[in-house]
What does this fold into?
Amino acid sequence: MSNHRHKRLMNSLMICCLILSCVAASCCWASEAQTDVRASAVEAAPFTIKSVPHWNGGQLPYVLSNNPSVDYRINNVIFLSMIGQLAPKVAEDGLIKPAKPNTNGWFGQYSFVVDRNDSRLLSLTIHYSGCGASCADTDEKLLFDSASGRRLSIRDIFTAEGRQALGKRNSLKRTERLQQEVDQLRKEISSEPTTSNSEVSDESSDVINDDTEDDYENGDIDSPRFWIHEYERCIKESASKDSSQYEAIESDQMTLGVEKVTFVHHQCYNGYGWYKDEVGRQALSYSFSELRPYVSAYGLYVLLGEGKYSLPLSPFEQVLRGYIGKAPITMYLREPERLFVSGFYFYEKNRGTISLTGKLEGKNIVLTERDEQVDYKTGAPQPVIRATINGETLEGFWEGEKKLRFKVVPATSNPKPATIP
It folds into this structure.
């Protein structure tokens, strides 16, 4: 057996042991919660990071500084984006365990790493385990402007041209890594002995039929041919005319450290047996000086401490408060992905989460809501929010059984939401 096959077998055995050790609550691949703080040696860290225990194990970060408004923005983005509830007023208050279980699955065993903590940037990586249709470990990257507390995205750091150029550069590097794995697997197949017709027949049965997704799932994930097929599929997608999705840097997770930026791309194969993928999630790192041609004016400030900047105003990735009619609400919208928008809101009175999905068209946004507590009649239209973006403000109408005024603005430590005339 080659070293490569031996490594694959050992990985499989390790995963099996982890699965067998899952607890009754369906917790899989849970790791001990731990906090690793890496502060910049050049500048004093402006934030103190505390920990808040989660009811399913582990801990979430809680930020403190000499600016309560900034703390409020950061902490509420952390807790709303990760667990769908507002942050406690103080870390010692802890979290409120929901009365009903999460309909999307089990999530727990949270831990976090502080990648950077200085006067320009706070960078966090939050790790957690989740089980729905299957179980997996996940990392969530959170970046905040230290002065304002606003959550940052790749679009804030890099220009449109820079994102495109970096996306193609990263795609070429990922393709090279996948091709190396394909070449190695082909060598393994060519070195395997085939002393009888039956062995040849058995080997040929490993070939995957790529006509349907069912054929992928029924394939032998222990066969090198399976992984050759999957890696070559990803290489082909990257080389296709419509490779924008594969090359889009916005789909990567980004970590800004003290000296480098790291982009983490999703796995080539995410179906059954994903844990046997030898390539896995591909991480590519660049020094700040390498990225100079690609960054925005704000990126130059964050990465290299050069120049002055002003962040573009946006309602996304921050806590919004306001009204529907006369009812106060809190809303959170994620950064759009190819004009697709998702998020949620809740009424201050009952705090039951209502999911939102929609589309961004210029300065206009249309959001359709889905309340899990409501049994919609067959064919009945679901309520819709139609609003216009003005800087960080969203204003328009909520259209359901009635048509009501709608307005939200960024929240501060002042709990009073925006007023509607």
Observations:
- The longest strand covers residues 106-117.
- Residues 1-44, 196-218 have pLDDT under 50 and may be disordered.
